[in-house]
Automatic annotation (TrEMBL), chain A:
A cellular component term, taken from the record's GO annotations: EMC complex
Top-level taxon: Eukaryota
UniProt source species: Rhypophila decipiens
Key word rRNA processing present: no
Domain EMC1 first beta-propeller: 20-420
Organism phylogeny: Eukaryota, Fungi, Dikarya, Ascomycota, Pezizomycotina
Chief site of localization: endoplasmic reticulum
Family statement drawn from the similarity comment of this UniProt entry: Belongs to the EMC1 family.
Ranges where the ER membrane protein complex subunit 1 C-terminal domain occurs: 738-970
Protein name: ER membrane protein complex subunit 1
Intracellular or extracellular location(s): Endoplasmic reticulum membrane
Topology of this chain in the membrane: Single-pass type I membrane protein
Automatic annotation (TrEMBL), chain B:
Record protein name field: ER membrane protein complex subunit 4
Organism of this sequence: Rhypophila decipiens
Location of the region described as Disordered in the Swiss-Prot/TrEMBL record: 1-63
Protein keywords: Endoplasmic reticulum, Membrane, Transmembrane, Transmembrane helix
One GO CC term on file: endoplasmic reticulum membrane
């Protein structure tokens, strides 16, 4: 037998060996959507990254700031980068030089270039101003393609020519006027900068011509009449690198389209139909392409297109032909093959290709699988003219649809669909798969009847249920086989069904673009349904303040910040009721309250007051809200006979200079298995378990201090507070809370108080345990009281006239990597130990740090005593290395996680995890290992085989033994 | 068959000998009887019997003293094994394993069974005259059994199976419930 210490050491060493995700669990317990975000029309294109090969990749800079390349054949991500580290809201530029192996992008203040094949960075330059446009100079004096970047630097227009090799500045053109820089364009000889001159609401276009070699201004003129342009949006197109670049703009009421060839001072006007809703211009981007372009006009009655030709000699623009009006929405895209320019039109059921020269259709592909069933918004296409005789074309078009999917149609065949809309998630929740509602109702009915009637009813129900017995019996062999062979049946008649382990749930995901997704997380995260709930304008974001799941009714309600709400069936996504968002933001958050009609979400206004109190709610609770000035307040309700009025029962104002960085409360589902911690000597330290607490981290930027407050949410009293020095306010600060402890993570640099010549710098995580008393076997001043009140002071001298304060033990660790999106795992009964889950933004993974490692009672500066070892305490070590085995995403590259949610399963050992942000990832974690279910490694086949072999042995040997015994009887005893 | 029926009248000689064996004739001292032959044992047993028969029957008092003495031996029996048991228990360690569990089980079972069977244990020593003395012996016997039981309890305690610490009662302690509730609306 092992001595107790050794066995404990083994126990401690064991987790590190078996914590990792097993290889056979990959793809079984976890699922991952590698996403880019919805591609933007201007920053998406096909490009050939290797000049010598014909294979091209699909590049995009998405609306959330992810730059990436997708293999157009398989739809798999080749490489991708989250450019700013966080999700951005639209904007950015992406260009590729013809025949170059790199692409260049710009977002915010930086211009960068990337290797087209492997996504390695070529250069990254940060500037002072904001990038307004980016263009590639196709022809330069030194046979190199350079980058032109237009900046708005504090009101002045700056154009820089950057070397395509290393991003070094070749020349810089500055114009210190108040004009708004808009776009840059170039033909072979000159560079044109288009800017808006005038005052707000009434601009006209100014064209500045700049020398390509020196960056000196050559000429400058104003196009059109004054006040012709209302805003930047009216200038729709500034033609790219064609031989005759154009600039096109409309007036505010979309009556006339004005086009001018850059380099000329005259403009041409074209009348638009009266009911025009939107105009788009599609033009080829190659120098050698024919100077043709297409104007796509959307009216209330449908949409059609006009193709225009530019005469290179006279610079005159003339309409060549029309493409017919279609009622259903369609998307146009341009593709060029040497000088030839092709326009493709994608509708719901068909792909049509025309040449820019004539209106004759050169290719037509009806969609083989019927219809897309979603409207195409914009598309990019790649047309290849097949060698040989005849007009044989091959086309592939990547289409962004109104369901936020990115679909590739290859010669009329649906090659792949990427659910890019799932990126940019703002809120998510787990929902149980709705059970048969009838059963729930019957059970409820039985509960209300008198026992005898209920019994008779139940017996009748069970007799009635017997009709399902044959079906059940016949399903047993197949279920047995599934169980032995490890195949899964997660669906019942095609519908998702609950399982006995509780792994089959739904995840409801709401995204910033107004889409809702229902994922079957028991079935590899398959998308059950996707609904476009609201059309959120670009640059805006659907701000979801609360998701409430009505388990018994099978419905879910999502409440947004602009008085919008939507109720839908959890299983099918079918919208029951929806209320569109208003312009004004009115709701800052919601509180989930229980009423007689079930739980409802209580909207809370922007200055922290409860907006409308439902009549069915009898408020007995304090609602904690955040006031407009940043502090917190507690609101109670007073019933003055006729109506309820709100009374602020307490306010918590932060000291001068501090502002809220992060707030956490205990999770709604936070069961406590044991109310105390048993120490090595079998004494007990009682946990301070107050459900009415919240932890608030406040940062003081001027002093660089982080103060963490633990507040009682009933009385507003500060239960404990601690201050950390040298904290960087620019780095993420997050708190998480569970049971009787909370963690706060921050980036800090501070000298040690014990030895001032030593300092600590790095990402730190501080954990605080709360106990009822400093000594063991003591329940604090409240002693054996069954209840406690936060409002009534204690009648004990030691409490000093306040309520019982927790005894605090705290410890700080330095982490080897920054973390964000802190969350604590949840299990059904809280018996399993907990894990702190966090996203590692630099390692693109989610780590599960066991609570045991973060233990604040780890002995500092000495080895643990045998009693402490028995308790599982290790010697304190200031650095917690992120163990690759504890990364629950293992080798997956999970990008841009913003939030992690957890939910308990039916089995105690397991907690379900769902992470969203850019990517969507879900898995199951077992912080105390899978002690209650058999792993995949358990060989059921050999178990069954052994049992069968034993049975066969008994059957075979039985007669032999019997015969032998009978023979023995007949033999005379010697 | 008729021949057979008449034969018993003239039984062969060996049958006669078997039925009435000839008297034992002592042979010379040079030929010892084979071991197990009845003649070799009979003389010694006869001697013993004669010895016992020669001894004077003890009086009632003597018998009582003897019985009480015997009873004391029985009463002190359990405590004699205790040091050995104690050492074994100490050696077996405090972890839960089959050996120590069996040992603890026996350490409890034996004293309890012993106490329950006190009367049976002293039945044969009890006479009408020594009842008072036997009662003392019984008491001593019970005390000894309790001593053995104490050893078992010591072992159980050492194994941590006795609910003597606060942590053993933790599961029955209730979480303190708050009187007020708050909802987070953050």
């Amino acid at each position: 037998m092992l001595p107790p210490q050794l066995s404990t050491f083994l126990l401690l060493a064991l987790p590190s060996a078996v914590r990792a995700v097993f290889q056979d669990e990959v793809g079984h317990i976890d699922y991952h959507y590698e996403l880019l975000g919805v591609p933007q029309p201007e920053t998406t294109f096909f490009h050939r990254p290797r000049r010598e090969e014909r294979a091209s990749l699909l590049y995009t800079l998405s609306d959330i700031g992810v730059l990436g390349a997708v293999n157009p054949t398989s739809g798999a991500v080749v490489w991708r980068h989250l450019l700013n580290g966080t999700l951005t809201n639209g904007g950015g530029f992406l260009r590729a030089g013809e025949g170059e192996n790199w692409v260049t992008g710009a977002l915010g203040k930086s211009v960068h270039a990337w290797d087209g094949v492997n996504g390695r960075n070529k250069f990254w330059v940060d500037f002072d101003g904001e990038v307004k446009d980016l263009e590639i100079m196709e022809m330069t004096e030194n046979n190199r393609k350079d980058v032109l970047a237009l900046f708005d630097e504090h009101g002045s227009t700056v154009l820089r020519r950057l070397s395509g090799d290393d991003g070094a500045e070749v020349w810089k053109y500055t114009e210190a006027s108040k004009d708004i820089p808009l776009q840059v364009s170039t033909n072979v000889e000159k560079v044109f900068v288009i800017s808006l001159r005038g005052s707000s609401g009434s601009y006209n276009l100014k064209v500045t011509v700049i020398d390509t070699l020196t960056g000196k201004e050559l000429d400058q003129w104003v196009l059109g009449a004054k006040g012709e342009v209302r805003s930047e949006k009216d200038v729709m197109f500034v033609g790219a690198n064609s031989a005759a670049p154009i600039v096109a703009w409309t007036d505010d009421s979309l009556q006339k389209l004005r086009i001018s060839v850059l380099g000329t001072r005259n403009r041409q006007e074209f009348a638009l139909p009266e009911d025009t809703l939107a105009v788009e211009i599609h033009a080829p981007h190659l120098v050698q392409s024919l100077p043709h372009f297409l104007v796509h006009i959307k009216t209330a009655a449908g949409n059609f297109a006009q193709v225009y030709h530019t005469d290179l000699k006279t610079n005159a623009i003339s309409k060549a032909y029309d493409l017919p009006n279609l009622e259903e929405s369609s998307a146009f895209s341009t593709s060029s093959d040497n000088a030839n320019v092709y326009f493709s039109r994608i509708t719901d059921g068909e792909l049509v290709l025309v040449s820019s020269v004539s209106s004759a259709i050169v290719g037509q592909w009806p969609l083989k699988d019927g219809k897309l069933n979603q409207a195409a918004l914009h598309a990019v296409s790649d047309v290849v003219k097949k060698s040989g005789s005849g007009q044989n074309f091959a086309i592939r078009a990547a289409v962004v649809t109104d369901k936020d999917n990115w679909v590739l149609v290859r010669n009329g065949e649906l090659a792949w669909t990427r659910p890019e809309g799932m990126s940019g998630g703002v809120a998510a929740a787990f929902a149980e798969i709705p059970e048969n509602e009838d059963l729930a109702k019957t059970l409820e009915q039985e509960a209300h009847e008198n026992p005898l009637e209920a019994y008779i009813h139940r017996v009748n129900r069970h007799i009635h249920d017997l009709q399902y017995l044959p079906a059940y019996l016949s399903s047993i062999p197949s279920r047995l086989m599934d169980s032995i062979l490890g195949t899964e049946t997660s669906t019942k008649d095609g519908k998702p069904a609950r399982d006995s382990f509780g792994f089959h749930k739904l995840a409801i995901l709401a995204t910033r673009r107004g889409m809702l997704y229902g994922l079957d997380i028991g079935n590899h995260g398959r998308i059950l349904w996707a609904d476009r709930v609201f059309h959120i304008a670009g640059g805006d974001k659907w701000n979801v303040t609360g998701i409430q799941i009505n388990e018994s009714g099978g419905e879910t309600t999502v409440v947004g910040s602009n008085k919008d709400s939507v109720t839908f069936k959890t299983l099918t996504g079918e919208i029951v009721e929806s209320k569109a968002p208003e312009i004004q933001v009115s709701t800052q958050s919601t509180a989930l309250v229980s009423t007689e009609q079930g739980q409802i979400l209580l909207p809370i206004g922007s200055n922290g007051e409860v907006l409308d109190v439902p009549s069915s709610w009898t408020p007995g609770q304090t609602v904690v809200t955040q006031g407009s000035e940043g502090g917190l307040k507690g609101i109670t309700f007073v019933d003055d006979g006729s109506k309820l009025s709100q009374v602020v029962s307490w306010t918590f104002a932060l000291p001068e200079g501090q502002k809220v960085a992060s707030i956490a409360t205990r999770p709604v589902h936070d069961p406590v298995a044991s109310i105390g911690r048993v120490l090595g000597d079998r004494s007990v330290r009682y946990k301070y378990l107050n459900p009415n607490t919240l932890v608030l981290a406040a940062i003081d930027e001027s002093k660089s201090t982080l103060t963490v407050y633990l507040l009682d949410t009933v009385s507003g009293q500060i239960l404990t507070s601690s201050t950390y020095e040298g904290v960087d306010a620019g780095k993420p600060i997050e708190v998480a809370m569970s049971e009787n402890w909370f963690v706060v993570s921050f980036f800090g640099q501070n000298t040690l108080r014990s030895s001032p010549d030593q300092s600590i710098k790095g990402y730190q995580i501080a954990i605080t345990d709360l106990y009822e008393s400093d000594v063991a076997n003591d329940r604090g001043p409240l002693e054996d009281a069954e209840n406690f009140s936060s409002l009534e002071p204690l009648d004990v001298p030691s409490a000093g006239g306040t309520s019982a304060l927790p005894a605090v033990i705290s410890q700080t660790y330095v982490l080897s990597s920054p973390i964000k999106a802190l969350q604590v795992s949840q299990t059904r009964q809280g018996i399993s130990s907990r894990q702190v889950l966090a996203y590692l933004p630099e390692m693109h993974g989610i780590v599960g740090i066991p609570r045991m490692f973060l233990e604040p009672r780890r002995p500092v500066g000495r080895d643990p005593t045998p009693a402490e070892v028995e308790e599982g305490l290790m010697k304190y070590h200031p650095v917690i290395e992120i163990d690759p085995k504890s990364i629950v995403t293992h080798e997956r590259d999970v990008l841009g996680v913003e939030k992690i949610i957890t939910s308990p399963a039916v089995v105690e050992s397991t907690s379900l995890v769902f992470a969203f942000g850019v990517d969507v990832f879900g898995t199951r974690v077992a912080p105390s290992f899978l002690f209650d279910i058999l792993g995949k490694g358990f060989n059921k086949l050999s178990l069954v085989g052994t049992v069968m072999a034993c049975f066969a042995g008994v059957v075979a040997l039985g007669p032999m033994v019997r015969r032998k015994q009978i023979d023995a009887r007949w033999k005379a005893p010697m | 068959m008729s021949q057979l029926a008449t034969s018993p009248k003239t039984a062969p000689r060996w049958v006669e000998n078997l039925k009435n064996p000839p008297a034992y004739k002592a042979k010379g001292p040079s030929l010892p009887d084979p071991p197990g032959f009845p003649s070799s044992q009979t003389p010694s047993s006869k001697k013993k019997d004669s010895k016992v028969a020669q001894r004077k029957a003890p009086t009632t008092e003597e018998m009582d003293t003897l019985k009480v003495k015997k009873a004391w031996e029985v009463a002190l029996g359990p405590v004699k094994g205790l040091p050995m048991t104690g050492i074994m228990m100490y050696m077996s360690g405090n972890s839960l394993q089959i050996f120590s569990i069996m040992m603890v089980f026996m350490a409890f079972k034996n004293p309890i069974m012993g106490i329950l069977a006190t009367n049976q244990a002293f039945e044969r020593f009890e006479t009408d005259t020594n009842k008072g003395q036997i009662l003392q012996v019984k008491l001593a016997y019970v005390v000894m059994q309790l001593l053995a039981l104490g050893l078992g309890i010591w072992k159980v305690n050492a194994m941590g199976l006795l609910p003597t610490t606060r942590s053993d009662w933790l599961a029955w302690e209730a979480q303190r419930e708050p009187l007020e509730h708050a909802i987070s609306g953050l």
